[in-house]
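== Item description ==
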Amino acid sequence: MIDKEKFIGDGYWLLPPGKLANVVVCLEMTAKPTQRPVPQRDRPFALERMPGPDLGAYRALFRRIGEDWMWFSRLKMPDDRLHAILADPAVEVFVLKEDQIHVGLLELDFREEGQCELAFFGLVPEAIGQGAGRFLMDQAIQKAWARPIRRLWVHTCSFDHPGALGFYRRSGFVPYAYAVEVHDDPRLTGHLPRTASPQIPLIEK
């Protein structure tokens, strides 16, 4: 909880050193799109199910994709909890490959009946802007709506890639809520290197 003494007026609150805050936008899709753009297949992309809950391989790809965008939730999560999520039959984890190299991650969470959360969706830095994101999103939408769901949803935040929100909207998602997330800076807790996400100022005590 933020100390009320830190309220400085006009809607602004001071955060203690070591804390970060970002604005989260929640988006949803309540019907399968009737038309999808034809993906450009001039690059050899392939999507494969990640075999078994290999925490090391999962976290390595998660870190490689998310270090620039302050992804840390699965890095600090206890092993037993992460194993339980990845081993759940209602959670599907896929790896995007290009020429047998891992370039993307897709995680679909069907644990809530009638819904699918696009839990994690991302590319390694060198794959951004190469058509991999569109291919991966088209695959995500097809796989999600292949099940009897009523809603596909995702959230992005102000720490994410600058083009993420627009990409989700062009893909057919509609924003429906804002939230503010406050958490410890993972660069100070050791979950990410101090050089991660250099666009986000590092403020210490």
In short: The mean pLDDT is 93. The chain is about 25% helix and 30% strand. The CA atoms of residues 150 and 202 lie 41 Å apart.
